[in-house]
Specification:
heterodimer, A: mainly beta, B: 0% helix
């Protein structure tokens, strides 16, 4: 099956700085890569996603890049704000199977 | 529009007891999923239902059963709970046919098995 690795497990940044979270996957059949934000005590919420036929996607302060050859994809958050503090999960999917990374706990220091 | 709802929010069981976790969605989605979330392990798929009347095993199905009662509801049953099933359980739904297969998650059920 698919194996998704996510790094780093924890990340602290100063408010206004950028944050980058990286994931790798093993199965070249994976064709959909969502990113989720999970706040304490809540379910994961989709923040951005990318399909395998696209190399980059941006939504305001959030962007995702995908390198299919190297089998890795990254989440970039610019101009971080305290409300960005949360746990972020990447996932790789094909069909109805979703495989998640182990999460990155992001802390934005005011 | 409540999205995905789950009941109960929290449950304590003794080893060997049974229980059913309920999930319902009001987004008219065809696909529904059950995940468990454990510290340091992310979310792992237990079972999913691609459409009403079908269910399939995910990554960690042992010790669980599911029922897709109708298009809205997808329940997860623990027949004989074990301490290893202590976890947070999330239900999710999606609509692959719309070209975007984003999953929408419920708030979770926290289960403690003693």
């Amino acid at each position: 099956g698919e194996n998704v690795e996510q790094h780093p497990s924890t990340l602290s940044v100063q408010e206004g700085d950028s944050a980058v979270i990286k994931c790798t996957y093993s199965d070249s059949a994976s064709n959909y890569f969502p990113w989720y934000k999970q706040e304490l005590g809540k379910g994961p919420q989709l923040i951005i996603d990318i399909r395998s036929n696209v190399g980059e996607k941006k939504d305001q302060r959030i962007a995702v890049t995908l390198n299919k050859t190297a089998k890795h994809f990254s989440l970039h958050i610019t101009e971080t704000q305290p409300e960005d503090s949360a746990v972020y999960f990447c996932a790789a999917s094909y069909g109805n199977q979703f495989y998640f990374g182990t999460g990155t706990s992001l802390t934005v220091i005011p | 529009n409540a999205g995905v709802t789950q009941t109960p929010k929290f449950q304590v069981l003794k080893t060997g007891q049974s229980m059913t976790l309920q999930c319902a969605q009001d987004m008219n989605h065809n696909s529904m999923y059950w995940y468990r979330q454990d510290p340091g392990m992310g979310l792992r798929l237990i079972y999913y239902s691609a459409s009403e009347g079908t269910t399939d095993k995910g990554e960690v199905p042992n010790g669980y059963n599911v029922s897709r009662l109708n298009k809205r509801e997808f329940s997860l049953r623990l027949e004989s709970a074990a301490p290893s099933q202590t976890s947070v359980y999330f239900c999710a739904s999606s609509e692959p046919g719309q070209g975007v297969i984003a999953q929408y998650f419920g708030p979770g059920t926290r289960l403690l098995v003693l």
